[in-house]
Amino acid sequence: MKQRIDPSAHRVAAGAAPRLPSLGESLARVAERFSGLGALGLVVIDAQPLAEIERDYGYEAYCRALGSLGALTESLVQDRLSGEEMLVTGETGRYELIVLLFRSPADAEFYRAEIPLFVEGLGEALSRHGHRVVYPYCRKAPIFGLGYTGTLRNPHFGAATQLRAALEEAREDARLDARIEARRRRKQLTGIVLAGEITSVYEPIVDVATKTVFGYEALARGPEGSDFHSPTSLFHAAESEGLVFELDCLCRRSGIDGAEGLPAGTKLFLNVRPTTIHDPNFRPEALIRTLSRCRLSPSDVVFEISEQESIRSFDVFREVRDEYGKLGFQFALDDTGAGYASLQSVIELEPEFIKVDRAFVQGIDQDPARQTLLRALSSVASEIGARIIGEGLDTLEELETLAALGIPFGQGWLFGKPTPLRAA
């Protein structure tokens, strides 16, 4: 009979996330079943990526992430397997999950074919949904190594001794799998950059008063169905592989190319990293040539600088801003409120637009504190000649509140999901 996880039976503390039973707690039962059946299969999930969560956010956060990983694994166990299985955490101090598979040694097909197929399916599920396991603690998609083995019961040895040996074999397999997966992703990302396989979709930015489109933000997308479809996964991987500079250039080019024929008077918001100012192709002459080819002019373009990315020298950046400003380009400070130096960035850069992070916009119609904060930021914006764009709008009530506060522009799925510009 298959064991089902009862979250209520395993908790870290009152109000904490569900906790899975450990191998130590389950060892007596595992040894009994192993000895009774004469064989055992096991799958090890190397959860080392969760160590970063425990280090940065504490044990409770780690347990929640581990619980999410366990739920994802248990769901696949129920879908793919139909026997007696047990899901446990590893030994003390190890970041791992273990799926114990109890089958008779006579079921050779299970050990030879079903376990590898299950592991393959689990790997695909972790690749697609692994980012949900670490959300909201990490933005980088984790790589969970997988290893498996099957072993026959040898009465000459203790069941625990054999189990330990099987675990070491599966762990070694998992470590190798993680290295292979990292190498596969690295090659895939390099191929995407070399082939220029980046497309752009465009999210409308709307005039709150007139409900008309003021501009579009270009958002990069990797190949559909790949590990790198989302810009978050693209750039986190690029940071690890030292390809951020090349990827940023590629995304910017895609954003401009896809905006060819932008309606007159409509702004194109392009995300750029602070380091982009050192890109030779970002110099005014080359950039204006690219814009001209797409029937765009500098006055059509607003460069978005993310507040979550540090600017090493405001003096250097202001020089670049002034140089581009004379040509007609404008600047927006993105994610305002999400970074640690929001007010300093606003004051130092004096952008034409201030994009307020969605965390301060969502639910603003029901939150006086958010309204007060946005009202204060609006006052600062007026002093420096900037205009505010509220990000993450989902409801009409939020839009109406922005209008009541005098916020000129809004952006979010309320106005539609990002699409290629020709379909926007």
Quick summary of this structure?
The protein is an alpha/beta fold and 424 residues long. The chain contains 12 helices and 12 strands.
Please specify the SSE layout and strand pairing.
Layout: H1 23-37, E1 39-46, H2 51-57, H3 59-80, E2 84-89, E3 96-102, H4 108-134, E4 145-152, H5 159-195, E5 199-207, E6 213-221, H6 231-241, H7 244-257, E7 267-272, H8 284-293, E8 301-306, H9 314-327, E9 330-336, H10 342-349, E10 353-356, H11 368-384, E11 387-390, H12 396-405, E12 409-411
Parallel strand pairs: 6-7, 7-8, 8-9, 9-10, 10-11, 11-12
Antiparallel strand pairs: 1-3, 1-4, 2-3, 5-6, 5-12
Walk me through this protein's architecture.
The structure is a single chain. With 424 residues, the protein is an alpha/beta fold. It has 2 domains: 180 residues, Reverse transcriptase/Diguanylate cyclase domain (Alpha-Beta Plaits), CATH 3.30.70; 228 residues, TIM Barrel (Alpha-Beta Barrel), CATH 3.20.20.450. Helices cover 45% and strands 18% of the residues. The protein has an 8-stranded mixed beta barrel with strand order 5-6-7-8-9-10-11-12, surrounded by 4 helices. Strands 2-3-1-4 form a 4-stranded antiparallel sheet, sandwiched between helices. Helix 11 links the parallel strand 10 and strand 11. The chain is elongated, with a radius of gyration of 26 Å. The N and C termini lie far apart (53 Å).
